[in-house]
């Protein structure tokens, strides 16, 4: 089997959530898949990665995680993913998978694709530099618009709130365990790793979810453990990523400065708006007093007498 994924970066074998889920699941069961780092998504059935070309399924391309897990289970390897789980535990995995898809996935998508500052700082630059022109413009616009439409039914506040609650739930579920279903990895661990690893590793100027994740030490430990045991970067990957580290640090610093400048400008604008009612009240009061005096003088209510020296 050939597993086509987006390239590695930031100490991860890929920066894409779904690609990481496929990679983690394959490595956890020691599947002999050939990982192909690709930047030509137009060659896949749905125009996205990951894509698995499996010779045992009449050359059909697999892009669905659950179908990929089924193929791994039936591939006859020594380690079978989820083999030791009970029917009840498998049902729990299905339930958690649905929960994460509904509550954590939108928050992750918003963080990388809908948040303007994160998108311009990281996502847009990363994909633009790896896709050829002008296809990069088409791909990024198409993917971002699709994600924005998907997220449009909820407010940003609600999306992030759901994401924070999902992180809390995962932290409580993991507890002090090594993996989510005990001492051996399962397909749920692969799913969770895919969602959380980019959130932890990528340089994000708007980092609300990232900070919350870092405040969950058991989840951080889980991510680092899976990455180091099953998905360690090669020497070549580390060398290339080290060469770009200063560039990413510089982009993050510029974005944070822009964020602070925007925050200061917003605070000044809000203060100006707060000052307007007071100014208007004073002007209105002075105007009313002036008109009243003029009316009183005109009607003879108040009479002005001259003073001669």
UniProtKB/TrEMBL annotation:
SUPFAM superfamilies: GST C-terminal domain-like (SSF47616). Keywords: Coiled coil, Membrane, Mitochondrion, Mitochondrion outer membrane, Protein transport, Transport. GO terms for biological process: mitochondrion organization; protein transport. Its main location: mitochondrion. GO terms for cellular component: SAM complex. PROSITE patterns: GST_CTER. InterPro entries: Glutathione-S-Trfase_C-like (IPR010987), Glutathione-S-Trfase_C_sf (IPR036282), Metaxin_GST (IPR033468), Mito_Protein_Transport_Metaxin (IPR050931), Sam37/metaxin_N (IPR019564). It holds the Pfam family GST_C_6. Residues 86-250 form the GST C-terminal domain. It is found in: Mitochondrion outer membrane. Residues 238-275 form a coiled coil. Belongs to the metaxin family. This is GST C-terminal domain-containing protein. It comes from Ancylostoma ceylanicum. The gene is Acey_s0476.g2150.
